[in-house]
Amino acid sequence: MFDLNRPIEVMDKELREIFPEREKKGGTRQADLLVKVFLLKGGFEYLLVHLEIEGSNRTGFEKRMFQYAYRLFDRFGSPVESIAVFIGDKGQRRPDHFYRKVLHT
Hints:
Elements: E1 9-10, H1 12-17, H2 20-24, E2 33-38, E3 46-54, H3 61-76, E4 80-86
Parallel strand pairs: 3-4
Antiparallel strand pairs: 1-2, 2-3
């Protein structure tokens, strides 16, 4: 699937840059991992892989994952594969999608 003969590019700086408003509010953003990988076959040259490690039950996780994906796609124009790894206890929320419907749209 991945072309391991080509370098994997770690994009930590780019991941932090897509949420600059967090730093202005004094909050911290744990930018887990964003890498650019090249594929052996496919209709596009490379794929961005966003890996998010989540250990809490904070609300808004699914919205934040959606925001990461669309901001990365908007900035780079490349497909984004988002992977969440839940490391909390058995009672941890594990949302698997973000959905919003307004006026039947």
